[in-house]
Each structure stands twice: as structure tokens, then as C-alpha cells.
Design a protein that fits this description.
CATH architecture of the largest domain: Sandwich
Structural class: alpha+beta
Distance between the termini: 81 Å
Helix content: 25-40%
Strand content: 25-35%
Radius of gyration: 25 Å
Number of strands: 9
CATH class of the largest domain: Mainly Beta
Largest sheet: 5 strands, antiparallel
Order of helices and strands: HEEEEHEEEHEE
């Protein structure tokens, strides 16, 4: 075998290996960028006597969350989305009407966001017993969201607590 052929073959192998490493690095960088702006939504119940109480939505991730949909269920019946109409149906019949913050279509939740979706202020266990029952036993809320990149289909769910 001629030395020029060996050198040419080695150059081709090095070029192909370099290309493979570059492709791998681009993919790794792209994945890192997606993770670095990943939103992490949390739904939490909070009840402190004398304080604002209810269901809190928190974005604990590093990037904004784009809400693409939600499902609200009360007493096992799907009420609809978490919008004004859905919140009104969930609150109907309560003696003390809680405050609601709802979504509009494709709402963006900023990094560091922390607000109550359904709340009373100040919380009194006796005056707000129906509200406590609603948010702990009767209400089920699921929020579907994505990062700015889209297509991840993330979900956060607040489920009714079971007794026992």
C-alpha cells in the first residue's frame, strides 16, 4: 500500500471522527439549553390561620412555562378548563366566595411566579370549612405546560386527598 493512500485514509477517518464529535457536542449543547430554561410548575395547598390560604401555583424552574391547557374536575365531574367559567363553577354554592386567579389561552407563567389560584384571606377554619373541603377533597386540577422550546407535554396535578 502506498504511503499516500494510508495518509489519505487516516485523514478521512480523522475527519469522520471529528464530524461525529461535533454532531454529538451540538446535540448535547441543545439538550443542555433545553434543560437550562425548563419550567417546573408546582401546585400546593397552604392553610395558615389568619393568613392567605388556598391553592398556590409556583414556577420553581429556570424558565417560563407556557400553559397549553388545563382540566378542572369537581366531585368527579369535569367542569372544564381553569378559566373564569371553570373557577365560577367550582366556587358556586360556597357561602364564602374565594378569590380566583385564572388563565387565558396560552398563558405564560414567568420564572419565580408564586400566586394563589384559589384563595381566601384571612383563613378561618370555621368560616372557611366549605372552602377547605373543596380544595382538599373535591377539586382535581391538572395543568399542561411546555417550555419556550415546546413539545415537552409537562403536567402538574393537584389531586384530592383521600381519607384514611
Amino acid at each position: 500500500m502506498d504511503s499516500e493512500i494510508v495518509v489519505a485514509a487516516c485523514a478521512v477517518v480523522i475527519a469522520v471522527a471529528s464530524f461525529a464529535v461535533s454532531v454529538y457536542e451540538v446535540r448535547a449543547t441543545r439538550q443542555h439549553n433545553r434543560y437550562s430554561v425548563r419550567p417546573i410548575l408546582q401546585l400546593q395547598r397552604g392553610m395558615s390561620v389568619g393568613q392567605k390560604a388556598g391553592i398556590r401555583l409556583i414556577n420553581a424552574g429556570l424558565g417560563p412555562a407556557v400553559v397549553v391547557g388545563s382540566t378542572l374536575t369537581v366531585d368527579g365531574e369535569v367542569v372544564g378548563e381553569w378559566n373564569k367559567a371553570g373557577a365560577d363553577r367550582a366556587r358556586e354554592g360556597l357561602v364564602v366566595r374565594p378569590y380566583a386567579m385564572t388563565f387565558v389561552e396560552t398563558q405564560t407563567i414567568a420564572t419565580g411566579y408564586e400566586e394563589f389560584l384559589l384563595s381566601v384571606d384571612p383563613y378561618d377554619p370555621q368560616a372557611h370549612a366549605e372552602f377547605l373541603d373543596l380544595i382538599t377533597r373535591r377539586l382535581h386540577l391538572e395543568i399542561r405546560y411546555e417550555s419556550l422550546y415546546g413539545g415537552e407535554n409537562y403536567r402538574v396535578t393537584l389531586r384530592p386527598r383521600t381519607q384514611g
